[in-house]
Amino acid sequence: MLPFHNASKLPFGLWTILVATLDALQASAQGNTVSRSNSTISLAWYTGWHATDFPLAEVSWDKYTHLHWAFAVTTPDDDMISLDPADAELLPKFVSLAHQNGVKAGISIGGWTGSQWFSPHVRTAENRTALVKAVTSLAKTYNLDGLDFDWEFPGLQGIGCNEVHPNDTVNFLSFLQELRNDTTGKNLVLSAATLDTPWVNSNGSVSTDLSAFSKVLDFIAIMNYDVRSNPSIGAGSSSPLDDSCAPPEASFGSAMSAVKMWTAAGMPADQIVLGVPAYGHSFVLTSTPAVNTSNTNGSAPDVTLPVYPQYNPNVERRGDKWDGDGGLDVCGNMTGPGGTFNYWGLVEEGFLNKDGTPAKGVQYRFDNCSQTPTLYNTTTGVYVSYDDVQSYALKGGFIHTAGLGGFAMWEAGGDLNDVLLNSIRLACAPTLFPATQSVETLFNTMTDDSPPSPGARKAYPPGAMKSPAQAIADAWKRESQESQERWRKLDAEAKARYSNPPHLLRLDQKTKM
């Protein structure tokens, strides 16, 4: 990304993202200095239960700074954290490989099905001390560098049978303070996975001051995925970059709104890592979108996909082979399939070709509000909200522009040939490559199998010089006339609001980017 004092040279489309970022930073950090660390966090979770399909040997260790094993889980006993026997066997190898490659090895505690007992474990001083001993013992036993707390969710119900208490958030802070003061804990990388919204206070309202957490946590990872849709409106993006342009009844959080709320609550931008999904959510539509039979230039007939297509919330089809058929959950409730597709699963299940273009019979649409793509199978009626290299590049550009700490991908095994990982690394951490690198050289650094998003790459003259974030965002953007016109209009408005060079220079100096 070009520095702010050269912002007039931003490619079309990124002006709008830049302005939204500036608005968020100004609203939440008036007069404060937002600094960037020298190293952008490149993190992913590795799931032990997928180790057979995605063995440790296939992890691109050299592309990460941190990897977190998922999961250790809470138990009814305050002094015990549980690991699956298979995880206990593989975890030493995971840590060893991480250290051999200069990667910090952590373990994530909790998760959707493993957060039942967090609340009682931090409720009393005695219990907190017991939990500190349990997690530090786990760290020492496996030579871990970090502990990641994925409590879903303090003060709120998650899976349905978690213990919940009004003081969960303040008790969680007390636990983390004790852990940070522990002789082992003081040397660990401590992080927490969070919702788009800040943790709630004792009244159940979103907290407005969580600044004390920034003193004990190295960073938080905002889980900007699994964003719900409103059946009365239609299927929306499950991982939107922006939702300020969405109707209120369809706005359930986004990367931009999350960063704005968390920084307003006192979490410094450079201690925020953006969670990004390597998977998508599917919906079974209740009606077939209109087909324009006079135009069949795409891989499927020219279907006019509505922004929020109607779907049946009571019908869920199985996604890819990692999705499963459902069954009894930890609460004893019967669940169906999740309807999720990993990026590689979209290829295996016939939604995408290996080069990332839509397969035959599949319609593609890029939503300029959420900045995420969708797919629609005209034969099965299944609609998928997912992320591709274009949306990853745009999220990476936002991470870099906003001065965030980095990104965290769920999960490492969901990608295909590292196409998503390569895209976001280049976009959010352009210091990985010389700023004067040519576009041709830039794309040569990506794997031969790295696909473009649907639509042709924009051609640049040989030797054209662009930063990686700028080049990727330009190169992957679809060149439909409608998309271009909308971006030009938004960019014109953005430039009009931020056209004063001294203002941009001052902001550039404040953010130290």
From TrEMBL:
Keyword Chaperone applies: no
Keywords: Carbohydrate metabolism, Chitin degradation, Glycosidase, Hydrolase, Polysaccharide degradation, Signal
Coiled-coil residue windows: none
Pfam families per UniProt: Glyco_hydro_18
GO cellular component, one term: extracellular region
Catalysed reaction equations from the record: Random endo-hydrolysis of N-acetyl-beta-D-glucosaminide (1->4)-beta-linkages in chitin and chitodextrins
GO molecular function annotations of the record: chitin binding; endochitinase activity
GO biological-process terms attached to the record: chitin catabolic process; polysaccharide catabolic process
Biased composition range(s): Basic and acidic residues: 475-496
Annotated segments matching region Disordered: 446-513
The keyword Signal is assigned to this record: yes
Family that this chain belongs to: Belongs to the glycosyl hydrolase 18 family.
Matching PANTHER family: CHITINASE (PTHR11177), HAP41P (PTHR11177:SF392)
Name of the protein described by the UniProt record: GH18 domain-containing protein
Species annotation: Psilocybe cf. subviscida
Lineage: Eukaryota, Fungi, Dikarya, Basidiomycota, Agaricomycotina
